[in-house]
């Protein structure tokens, strides 16, 4: 749960915030405007100023609000003039929107309000679907509603190009006045405002609803408010029933509106839905008692709280916000419940938590124990958070001649109730005349002090102060731009800490607003002064604790002399057994008894027949490489990868999730101990996530610790004495220079041709949809006894090169031999029986040699491979699981690791381990973690002449309830949750945000089923479909900490320098495709401080950075970008340089590092950027890496690649069938490498090898 | 919340070296049996750790006694099996009794009037669980223990029996939490052992004024007017200014009780 903010107004009208991670109220920078009421959703605050005008405050957004205005310029070819802007009368406008229906003349497109600022001039878009365009961005077509192509042809009669200009909301972190209703701001001021509606079911993300009440008791709705237009468009009057004079209202997160009427009743707006933000009608609700007048209400999701004029608090039962748009009963609830406590104001948060201001003591109270089962909670608990005052405000008040205390006391005494009881119309009138800052005067009462004390950055635009430049009305940017010349770029809503002086005092509060606060009842912030919570740090220092600990430790010293005593409880060996179902490979599941035995330090897993006597399979736990969840809903399953066993993959199905997790924990702890991977995760680890969101780590130090080493080389030895020639051994690191391969054996008595080969991966040529294999052999060493010659040769793509012949043979029939092949930079040197025999110059790079083979009539004895680099067999890697649920994980070599969840939340690795199924055992630094996923099913219908659209399809049709392809049957009832860790978050809902658009009921139409769908029904449409979704959430634990509000799409990390606590560059993409750089990330502070937005013309979908300041990205339209001007002082660089995508392919993902730049296209093919050099860091062209048979065979259902990760020396990828493959043979002369080494096919989704060196 | 793992771990790791000897009168074999040395967790109970002791000595006693229930005695006092071993040690071993703790084993003449018989490990499990529930009634009105599943209870018991700290605390931490609507435990579960059994009383961890009560307050309420009192728990003397809530969270035995051994000095 990231931090959120509670807002409050003190009795001076100053706005304060209290963060759920903080413990102190902080004042918002004061800008000469006091406030009376406040209403907020995260990042957006609407307030009623002391001058009874409405103000909006946008804060805490990491990415600026930007809108790209688009205008298509259309031209038609005329015989003499060529292309001109004079179009036919039937044609579209010269400047239009994409489908030509709206006039979009460039000079008519203006900024919507003063709060906006243009970024640059109008520019022509120079690419089409990622491919660069010539001809000044023109695209050509035969006629207008048509396909446009970049090439001009003889038949091209029309052309168009796209002009773009982006505008930015530049009034972030400041109060912005909303234009008054009338020219004279005093003629109808406001008395209340409320924002909500951020969670309307099915509405576009970013929708918000703002309602307000004027002093004439008219209800106003603000149209067009969204996160792309925070100030909205205009006020529109909403009629109230006759005789109902509204004095206050509140909008809930689901759009439900409650209003308090002057005579004490309440009005409820019914029919607020995603289509109808204003709702239909008012429903009257009686006041809680005959003589009781309701004067304030606050709406949550499933609760409405109210305060009556006698300060009594009431809870409305029976309200269901999610369904309030459909049902008046659920909107209005069924009855008032009286609550204890006297409160002046109450505020309900978006998760129904309740805050209030006490009527008598003016303290802020929190209602404890509010949960979905008990919305009324248990008791009121007061917040005791000290106040922190900014210098700007304190000096302002000091300059008024008084100390702050005096002033606050004065105000309290002189105006005891004016801020609170605005329900009384008389008082309001009274106030608008007598209040010191009536709308006709300047915002702060005292004229002289105002100008002296106004902070350096004036951050309020007052409607009166700046007539003609009011937010919400149109303005002339050319003349008014100067207003924003000094734009505030700090994304933090507070001034620097140095500017704050600290004064702790408890002020009387007049207002509290919880709409933006999302604290959980079970995880209360440090806001309550209590003896029991939050001071564990202090406890550690207490003398009594120190004394107890030292005395406890002293006990063990006394006992130390007796350590040889037998321990009463033996914890070193145990057996765990249980029933399960077992499947070998992909076979059917059969009953079995599973027995895990652990004796001292040896673990064995035995799969017994149900009789318990005979074994079906058995293997050592040290052979287990990965234990992975492979459950299907209702069937809790584990896949155990044992590559050395037969079969290499076994699966177990358990009776319950609990049993599964118990076994999973046993496997994990025992295998971890055997592979000595416990505790801390190495910095250079490779991280991976599976399709189910599980996180796995392979730590290279593990393999390094047990691989044999001889004089600086890594050694692998094979005993081949029981093998027969021909025999092939895989070389996992190639035959890189410095490698020495030694084989001993005995030549057969009747041998003729024998030999040793160093083979590369074959080249595959695709002909007539079938792959033909063309062999590559780096070295062919072939003594021929009959001819009496030794032949050396190489084969490239199936063709032998020129033979090198020696007319002698150093070997003899029937004799033992020892052949040693040493790879040097330019040749293989062959020694026979320790005497140099010959050399063979490289014809293929030795890096690409991936097999060593012996053949002919000989008996091999022993093979030794000595490699200067670690020999990595993907089948030897032990993948250890840690808790968490992620879609992506990225790491870098100093060990800073970030993840992105399925709901796009960013998570930062805490350096701990465990969590998830491991529970709290063997866990360190784990936190709670949640993630969301949507299940989607499609409802398909076919039209028939009699009944119209029905669910009776043709026999050849797809299932009427199906998945997106239509091949799988999916009904809503069938969809089950994966495991007990998942919970439904919603019911089935129609999805209105489907690509292609939908109609009012969510339907999309098409001519026939496997087709493109569109939103409007055409005459020829015979089928339609709609998408249903249901959201579920997982609750787990893991060594991850949630970061902020900004949701991420992709990210990458790269340390700047070579020491441990160096700065780490972190690039990320927000869900809108905006690039950002995280400031202040390092090993000691993996979370960093703030995001800095980096503008790009196009939305991006993938980003990657390597050292030497390379930053690469992929745009939504499929082209690549290279960042220019990145230096050590300016890590965010200067501008994006567009790099054309490979011909015919749109890129999807990119990964760049020392070893190269690799990109993945939409068809699942890989491309390597070639000829990258210091002078040309962006390279010259792409080389295609085809999907060849080894990749296709790596896992079932593989048709292409899913993800690629490039590291310092390695390139790894996952296939869409879930296999993990590692590129072999990459060397400076061949950055594309050759061939793949296949790892376990563990349903892998994505991996990161950036840290691995 | 009991989150000071360092202290919890140290309390859990507390062990006692014990030297078991068979009562000379009961030896029927010609050969005197060797004493049996064992390292025993302080938090455990004797019946859980003495299987090996029984096996070792039963060879040396007469046939008819072999099936008799084994009992133990120190300085002439039979050891009550239902007390945790650490409590017995604090209670019976004086400062002059050095380690290892020398205990005499008997098969004959079971002192039925002094100690209970126990037939099997289920008896002690039942006793342990009833203590745990009693403690929870005092702390949370019994809401947490009764809300637990059977497997949680099992995990607690197996964690104690198999000396698995993590396994035990994974469940026990729930019992040591303070519920959302409370600021502390309702009452502190404790027992004060004197020479003649133990005493209990309802004592709240916070005073009327919200102040945290300390061990000193507890002793004053239990033994009003007694000034010099020696308190022992886990083989050490806790400082009197230690807050009760913290003590209950961190220094309780696995049955969730604080077992204080109190010596009233006159």
Automatic annotation (TrEMBL), chain A:
CDD domains: GLECT. The keyword Repeat applies. One of its GO terms (molecular function) is carbohydrate binding. Keywords: Lectin, Repeat. It holds the Pfam family Tectonin. GO terms for cellular component: bounding membrane of organelle; cytoplasm. Coiled coil: none annotated. InterPro entries: Beta-propeller_rpt_TECPR, ConA-like_dom_sf, Galectin_CRD, Peroxin/Ferlin, TECPR1-like_DysF, Tectonin_beta-prop. The keyword Flavoprotein does not apply. Belongs to the TECPR1 family. This is Galectin domain-containing protein.
TrEMBL record, chain B:
One of its GO terms (cellular component) is mitochondria-associated endoplasmic reticulum membrane contact site. Pfam families: ATG5_HBR, ATG5_UblA, ATG5_UblB. GO terms for biological process: apoptotic process; autophagosome assembly; autophagy of mitochondrion; cellular response to nitrogen starvation; immune system process; negative regulation of programmed cell death; piecemeal microautophagy of the nucleus. It is found in: Cytoplasm; Preautophagosomal structure membrane. Residues 187-262 form the Autophagy protein ATG5 UblB domain. InterPro entries: Atg5, ATG5_HBR, Atg5_HR, ATG5_UblA, Atg5_UblA_dom_sf, ATG5_UblB. The keyword Membrane applies. It is a peripheral membrane protein. Its main location: cytoplasm. Keywords: Acetylation, Apoptosis, Autophagy, Cytoplasm, Immunity, Isopeptide bond, Membrane, Ubl conjugation. One of its GO terms (molecular function) is Atg8-family ligase activity. Residues 122-177 form the Autophagy protein ATG5 alpha-helical bundle region domain. The keyword Membrane applies. Residues 11-107 form the Autophagy protein ATG5 UblA domain. Involved in autophagic vesicle formation. Belongs to the ATG5 family. Conjugated with ATG12. Forms a conjugate with ATG12. Part of the minor complex composed of 4 sets of ATG12-ATG5 and ATG16L1 (400 kDa); this complex interacts with ATG3 leading to disruption of ATG7 interaction and promotion of ATG8-like proteins lipidation. Forms an 800-kDa complex composed of ATG12-ATG5 and ATG16L2. The ATG12-ATG5 conjugate interacts with RAB33A; this interaction is bridged by ATG16L1 and promotes ATG12-ATG5-ATG16L1 complex recruitment to phagophores. Interacts with TECPR1; the interaction is direct and does not take place when ATG16L1 is associated with the ATG5-ATG12 conjugate. This is Autophagy protein 5. It comes from Brassicogethes aeneus.
């Amino acid at each position: 749960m990231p931090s959120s903010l509670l807002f409050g107004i003190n009795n001076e009208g100053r706005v304060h915030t209290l963060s759920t991670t903080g413990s102190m109220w902080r004042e918002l920078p004061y800008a000469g405007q006091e406030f009376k009421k406040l209403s907020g959703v995260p990042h957006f605050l609407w307030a009623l100023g002391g001058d009874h005008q409405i103000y909006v405050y946008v804060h805490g957004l990491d990415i600026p609000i930007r809108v790209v205005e688009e205008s298509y310029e259309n031209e038609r070819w005329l015989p003499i003039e060529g292309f001109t802007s004079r179009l036919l009368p039937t044609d579209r406008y010269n400047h239009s929107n994409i489908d030509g229906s709206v006039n979009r003349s460039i000079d008519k497109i203006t900024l919507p309000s003063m709060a906006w600022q243009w970024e640059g001039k109008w520019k022509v878009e120079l690419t089409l679907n990622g491919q660069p365009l010539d001809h000044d961005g023109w695209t050509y077509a035969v006629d207008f509603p048509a396909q446009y192509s970049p090439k001009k042809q003889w038949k091209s009669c029309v052309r168009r190009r796209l002009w773009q200009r982006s505008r930015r909301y530049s009034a972030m972190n400041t109060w912005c006045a909303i234009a008054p209703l009338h020219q004279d701001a005093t003629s109808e001021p406001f008395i209340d405002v409320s924002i909500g509606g951020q969670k309307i079911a099915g509405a576009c993300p970013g929708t918000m609803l703002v309602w307000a009440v004027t002093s004439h008791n008219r209800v106003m709705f603000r149209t067009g408010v969204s996160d792309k237009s925070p100030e909205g468009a205009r006020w529109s009057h909403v009629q109230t029933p006759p005789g109902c004079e509204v004095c206050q209202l509140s909008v809930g997160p689901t759009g439900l509106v409650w209003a308090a009427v002057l005579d004490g009743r309440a009005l409820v707006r019914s029919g607020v839905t995603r289509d109808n933000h204003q709702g239909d009608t008012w429903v009257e609700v009686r006041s809680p008692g005959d003589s009781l007048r309701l004067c304030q209400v606050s709406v949550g999701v499933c609760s409405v709280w109210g305060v009556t004029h006698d300060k009594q608090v009431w809870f409305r039962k029976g309200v269901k916000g999610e369904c309030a748009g459909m049902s008046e009963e659920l909107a209005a609830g069924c009855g008032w419940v009286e609550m204890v406590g006297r409160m002046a104001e109450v505020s309900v948060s978006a998760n129904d938590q309740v805050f209030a201001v006490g009527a008598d003591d003016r303290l802020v109270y929190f209602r404890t124990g509010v949960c979905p089962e008990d919305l009324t909670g248990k008791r009121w608990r007061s917040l005791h958070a000290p106040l922190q005052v900014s210098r700007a405000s304190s000096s302002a008040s000091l300059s008024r001649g008084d100390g702050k205390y005096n002033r606050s006391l004065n105000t309290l005494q002189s105006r005891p109730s004016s801020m609170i009881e605005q329900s009384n119309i008389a008082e309001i009138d009274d106030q608008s005349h007598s209040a010191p800052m009536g709308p006709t005067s300047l915002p702060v009462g005292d004229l002289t002090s105002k100008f002296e004390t106004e902070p350096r950055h004036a951050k309020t635009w007052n409607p009166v102060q700046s007539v003609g430049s009011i937010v919400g009305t149109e303005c002339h940017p050319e003349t008014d731009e100067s207003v924003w010349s000094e734009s505030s770029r700090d994304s933090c809503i507070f001034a620097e800490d140095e500017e704050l002086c600290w004064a702790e005092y408890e002020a009387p509060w007049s207002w509290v607003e919880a709409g933006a606060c999302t604290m959980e009842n079970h995880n209360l912030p440090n806001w309550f002064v209590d003896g029991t919570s939050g001071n564990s740090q202090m406890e550690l220092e207490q003398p009594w604790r120190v004394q107890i600990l030292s005395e406890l430790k002293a006990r063990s010293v006394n006992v130390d002399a007796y350590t040889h005593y037998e321990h009463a409880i033996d914890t070193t060996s145990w057996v765990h057994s249980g029933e399960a179902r077992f499947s070998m490979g992909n076979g059917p599941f059969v009953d079995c008894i599973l027995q895990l035995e652990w004796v001292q330090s040896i673990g064995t897993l035995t799969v017994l027949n149900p009789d318990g006597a005979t074994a079906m399979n058995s293997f050592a736990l040290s052979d287990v490489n990965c234990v992975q969840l492979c459950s299907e809903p209702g069937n809790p399953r584990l896949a155990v990868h044992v590559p050395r066993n037969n079969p290499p993959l076994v699966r177990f199905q358990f009776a319950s999730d609990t049993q599964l997790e118990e076994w999973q924990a046993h496997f994990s702890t025992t295998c971890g101990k055997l592979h000595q991977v416990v505790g801390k995760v190495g910095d250079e680890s490779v991280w991976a996530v599976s399709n189910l969101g599980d996180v796995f780590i392979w730590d290279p130090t593990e393999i390094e610790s047990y691989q044999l080493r001889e004089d600086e080389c890594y050694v692998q030895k094979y005993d081949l004495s029981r093998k027969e020639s021909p025999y092939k051994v895989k070389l996992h690191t190639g035959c890189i220079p410095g490698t020495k391969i030694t084989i001993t054996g005995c030549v057969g008595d009747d041998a003729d041709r024998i030999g040793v080969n160093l083979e590369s991966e074959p080249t595959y040529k695709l002909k007539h949809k079938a792959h033909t294999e063309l062999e590559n052999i780096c070295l062919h060493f072939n003594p021929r006894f009959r001819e009496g010659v030794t032949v050396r040769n190489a084969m490239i793509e199936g063709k032998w090169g020129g033979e090198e012949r020696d007319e002698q043979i150093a070997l003899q029939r029937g004799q033992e031999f020892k052949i040693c092949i040493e790879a040097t930079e330019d040749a293989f040197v062959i020694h026979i029986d320790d005497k140099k025999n010959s050399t063979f110059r490289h014809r293929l790079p030795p890096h690409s040699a991936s097999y060593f083979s012996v053949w002919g009539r000989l008996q091999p004895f022993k093979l030794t491979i000595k490699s200067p680099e670690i020999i990595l067999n993907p089948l030897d890697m032990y993948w250890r699981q840690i808790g968490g649920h992620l879609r992506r994980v990225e790491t870098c070599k100093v060990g800073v690791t970030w993840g992105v969840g399925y709901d796009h939340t960013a998570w930062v690795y805490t350096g701990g381990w465990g969590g998830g199924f491991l529970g709290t055992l063997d866990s360190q630094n784990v936190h709670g973690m949640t993630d969301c996923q949507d299940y989607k099913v499609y409802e398909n219908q076919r039209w028939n002449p009699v009944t119209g659209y029905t669910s009776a399809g043709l026999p050849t049709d797809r299932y009427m309830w199906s998945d997106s392809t239509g091949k799988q049957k999916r009904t809503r009832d069938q969809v089950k949750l994966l495991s007990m860790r998942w919970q439904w978050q919603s019911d089935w809902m129609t999805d209105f945000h489907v690509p292609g658009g939908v109609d009012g009921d969510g339907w999309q139409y098409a001519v026939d089923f496997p087709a493109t769908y569109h939103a409007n029904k055409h005459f020829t449409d015979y089928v339609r479909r709609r998408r249903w979704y249901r959201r579920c959430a997982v609750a787990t634990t893991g060594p991850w900490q949630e970061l902020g509000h900004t949701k991420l799409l992709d990210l990458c990390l790269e340390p700047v320098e070579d020491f441990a606590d160096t700065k780490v560059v972190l690039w990320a993409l927000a869900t809108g495709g905006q690039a950002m750089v995280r400031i202040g990330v390092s090993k000691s502070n993996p979370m960093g401080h703030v995001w800095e937005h980096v503008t790009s013309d196009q939305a991006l979908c993938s980003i990657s950075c390597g050292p030497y300041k390379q930053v690469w990205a992929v745009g939504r339209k499929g082209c690549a970008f290279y960042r220019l001007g990145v230096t050590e002082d300016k890590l965010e660089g200067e501008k994006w340089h567009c790099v054309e995508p490979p011909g015919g392919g749109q890129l999807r993902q990119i990964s760049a590092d020392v070893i190269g730049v690799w990109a993945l296209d939409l068809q699942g093919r890989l491309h390597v950027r070639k000829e990258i050099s210091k002078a040309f860091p962006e390279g010259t062209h792409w080389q295609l890496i085809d999907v060849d048979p080894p990749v296709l065979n790596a896992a079932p259902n593989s048709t292409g690649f899913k993800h690629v990760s490039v590291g310092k020396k390695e390139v790894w990828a996952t296939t869409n069938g879930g296999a993990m493959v590692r590129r072999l043979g990459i060397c400076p002369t061949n950055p594309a490498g050759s061939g793949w080494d296949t790892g376990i096919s563990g349903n892998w989704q994505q991996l990161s090898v950036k840290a691995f060196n | 919340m009991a989150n000071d793992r360092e202290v919890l771990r140290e309390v859990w790791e507390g062990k006692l070296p014990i030297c078991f000897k068979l009562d000379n009168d009961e030896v029927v074999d010609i050969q005197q049996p060797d004493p049996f040395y064992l390292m025993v967790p302080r938090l455990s109970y004797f019946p859980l750790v003495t299987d090996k002791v029984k096996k070792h000595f039963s060879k040396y006693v007469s046939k008819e006694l072999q099936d008799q229930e084994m009992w133990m005695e120190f300085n002439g006092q039979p050891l009550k099996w239902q007390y945790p071993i650490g409590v017995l040690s604090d209670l019976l071993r004086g400062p002059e009794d050095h380690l290892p703790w020398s205990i005499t084993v008997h098969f004959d003449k079971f002192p039925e009037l002094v100690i209970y018989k126990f037939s099997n490990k289920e008896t002690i499990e039942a006793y342990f669980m009833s203590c745990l529930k009693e403690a929870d009634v005092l702390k949370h009105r019994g809401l947490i223990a009764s809300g637990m599943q059977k497997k949680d209870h099992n995990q607690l018991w197996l964690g104690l029996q198999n000396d698995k700290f993590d396994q035990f605390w994974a469940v026990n931490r729930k019992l040591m939490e303070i519920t959302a609507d409370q600021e502390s435990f309702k009452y502190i579960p404790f027992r004060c052992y004197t020479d003649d059994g133990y005493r209990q009383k309802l004592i709240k961890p916070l005073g009327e004024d919200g102040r945290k009560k300390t061990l000193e307050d507890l002793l004053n309420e239990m033994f009003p007017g007694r000034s010099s009192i020696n308190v022992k728990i886990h083989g050490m003397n806790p400082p009197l200014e230690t807050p009760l809530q913290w003590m209950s969270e961190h220094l309780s035995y696995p049955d969730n009780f604080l077992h204080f051994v109190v010596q009233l000095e006159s």
